[in-house]
C-alpha cells in the first residue's frame, strides 16, 4: 500500500495565486495525498476559494482555520495543518507557489528507498517568468547547493551551509511525520520570516537529509511575497538576528556549545553584537584586498 502524503498549504489573502497552487497538487502523478488548506485569517476571497475546493473534493481536500478566524502567524498555521495531517509523510506548498507534476511521486520514492533519512529536498526554481513578460523570462534561476547531490547528507552539514549562504536554504522538502513530531514542529515565536529556517534547522541538526538534483518546486517571485515585503520594509536584518539568537539558545539548551554549528552561529551574530568592530574588520579586510590588487596590477605592468 502506498503511503499517504499530507500537503499543507497555509494562506493569508492569497486570492490571486491559491487556485494555481491547489491545481498543482491535484495534478500530481502520485494519487495518495491529502491537501490541508489552512486559513490564517484571510479577509479576501481566498477563504471562499479554499472552502469551495474542500466541498468539491471532500475526500482529498480539507479546509482549516484558527478559532474565530484569527490571524496567528505562519508557524502556528503550519502546526495546525500538522496536527490534522493523517499522512506518513508531510510536504509543504505555499499558496503562491507551484508543484511540478512528479514532485510527490519522486520524493516518496526517495524516502521509501532511504529509510535512514528524515527528509528529502530538491532544488527550487526562483520563478519570475510566471508573469509572461519577456523581460522576466531570463530572470529564472535554479537553486544551487555546494555539496554532493543525489545522496544522503549527515547532520549538521546542510545547516552549516545555509547559515553561511542564505541562498542555499531549504525551500522544497518532504519530511517523515515521525521526524516532524520529534522536533515539535514549527516554532510559534516565528510568525513570518525565518519560520521555515527554524524548523529546518531543528530537522537538519538531528536527521540525515537526501539532497536531490531534481527541481520539483516553482517559487513565485512577486511584490506581495513575505520575503519581498521584508526586504523592502527593511525588516530582514532584524528577522535574521532573531533567528540566529533563537538558534544560539536552541543549541545551548541542546548542549552543543562546542559544536561547529555553534561556532558558525557566533560568527554570524558577530556583526549584530559588535557592529563597530565588524566595520573596522571590513575596512581592514578590503584595504588588504585593495592593496593586493594594486600590487598585482603593478607587477603585471612591470613584467609585460
Automatic annotation (TrEMBL):
Coiled-coil segments: none
SUPFAM superfamilies: Nucleotide-diphospho-sugar transferases
Glycosyltransferase 2-like domain residues: 6-136
One Pfam family matching this protein: Glycos_transf_2
MF (Gene Ontology): transferase activity
Alphabetic keyword roster: Transferase
Source species, domain of life: Bacteria
The protein's name in its UniProt record: Glycosyl transferase family 2
Protein's organism: Chroococcidiopsis thermalis (strain PCC 7203)
